């Protein structure tokens, strides 16, 4: 990518991209080619960059998760219902954590909870009401992470009609999860991410 291309792609300033590129070059994580405005960089060591990203993610506070119970619905049907409600209300969402990994590369035989990120341009109570969901302390089948930035939705993919978080972001989310999420993260990294 050139600085300008990457800045447009991720909606940040070219100067920020330039600073990041310079730091990545110092660490031998990207290789530069050309000069001036035509200078491009390519990722030279994706494994090391992802490992560094993991370390940085571990230092961040865990996001607040709101837990809900949606009665009489299977996980697959709940994901479809979330998709339908969010599309109708014009709300950005992505399936994340276990179900994102499962959609990319099946591994577990049963996942009882759907986790998703939602950009709160529609009130969360409206979305919950549309799904007939009630907030609970235990026994949730839907977990909601409220996103503060549209950057959480970059590189989302559509799988089976559902918006799914990018494999790398799903991997990072899983590493901070519970239960078998770390095992699922490693499976996703090997099978889908590949480095």
Please describe what this structure looks like.
By secondary structure, the chain is of the alpha+beta class. It is 45% helix and 18% strand. The chain is built from eight helices and nine strands. The chain has helices at residues 3-10, 14-26, 46-59, 75-89, 97-104, 124-130, 167-175, 181-193; strands at residues 30-33, 40-43, 65-69, 93-96, 114-118, 134-135, 142-146, 157-159, 162-164. The chain has a five-stranded mixed beta sheet. Strands 1-2 form a two-stranded antiparallel ribbon. Strands 8-9 form a two-stranded antiparallel sheet. Helix 7 packs antiparallel against helix 8. The longest helix has 15 residues, at 75-89. The two termini are 20 Å apart.
Characteristics:
195 residues; two-stranded antiparallel sheet; single chain; alpha+beta; five-stranded mixed β-sheet; 45% helix
The spatial strand order of the largest sheet comes to: 4-5-7-3-6
**Structural class category:** alpha+beta
Shape annotation:
globular
Biggest sheet descriptor: 5 strands, mixed
Task: Give helix and strand order, one letter per element, not per position.
Answer: HHEEHEHEHEHEEEEHH
